[in-house]
Each structure stands twice: as C-alpha cells, then as structure tokens.
Amino acid sequence: MKRIGFCVLLMAFCSGLHASQRVASPLELKLTTRTANVCFGESLQVEAELVNASDEQIVIDVKTIWYQLAFNFFRARSSRTHPDRSGSGTNTAGSLTRVRDAGPKYEGEYSVLRPGESYKATGNIELDDDFFKSRGGYDLKVTYCQFLDAVFQEHTVWKGTVESEELNFKIVSCRAAGKNLK
Known about the structure:
Elements: H1 2-21, E1 27-33, E2 37-38, E3 43-52, E4 58-61, E5 68-77, E6 90-99, E7 110-113, E8 118-126, E9 136-146, E10 151-152, E11 155-156, E12 160-163, E13 167-171
Parallel strand pairs: 2-13
Antiparallel strand pairs: 1-3, 3-8, 4-7, 5-6, 5-9, 9-12, 9-13, 10-11
C-alpha cells in the first residue's frame, strides 16, 4: 500500500515538473473553416495559419504544417426509458490520428517569418474513413512538427512542435446525396 502511495506521489511530482519545464512556443497554429457542417465522404476545407509570435525571425518548414491530424468525438445518450431522461445512458467516444510520413528522401520547403508574420496553408481533409460515419460533432487538432536539422538563407530552421486549438465541425445527414449514416 505504501508503494502505491509513493508511486502516485512520484507521478504527480513528475507531471508538475514536466509542466513547469515547458517552454512557450514562438509559433501559434490557428485553424479556421468556412463551413463547419460536412457530409460523410466529403472533405473538410481547413485553413491553417502558423503565426510568428516571437520578437525574432523564425524559419519554418511549410510542408510540416499538416504533420499530424487528431480527431475526437464524444456522444452522450441518456436513457429513453425515463420521462425525465435520467438514469443510465450509452456514451460513446473515439479518436483517430493521422500522421504524415515524410519518407527517407524528405526535402523541406522553407519560409522566413518575421515577428508578427504568418504563413497560411489550406488543406482538404477527406472524411471518408469509417470513423466519420456517425452524425454529430467532431474535434480536430493539427500539429506542426519539425525536427530535422536544416539551414535556410543562413538561418537555422526552428525545431519543435506546435499544436492548434480544437476546431469543431459536424458530420450532418446527407441522405439526398445517397450517403448512409448511422
């Protein structure tokens, strides 16, 4: 029992230590979409904006803005047997992560961002995986990731990861288009 308590304390200490060692990123990644409602099998058009929030020039690899896509959903369904909808229900949740493989012969495409400048890229994200067959809300996070040692125009390319805030979108019923959803 003492070992379990010690392990819990050690984990809590390490988590706090890890959090205190995080360094604020000089980059911010913002996501926007024109339409937050899409049909299964269609693509979600997302604009990613990588912003230099520092006071110095930063060199980025524009190919790695879409390095990782992480999708999540949660559905809470109350019991239908009680008029007040109280009681037990069925909750479902899921996550899907897509990671881009750069391959062994990867060559970056670099851009210099001055303080306050940004780089925008538009991506069409296909929503044709079985993961997206249920109607409802989904969350998307994009991660910019660059760990290769590189130099561009005599400047070192910034290394690290930047995760966006969540972008919410919905898979809606599209029966008129002949697409079957759960």
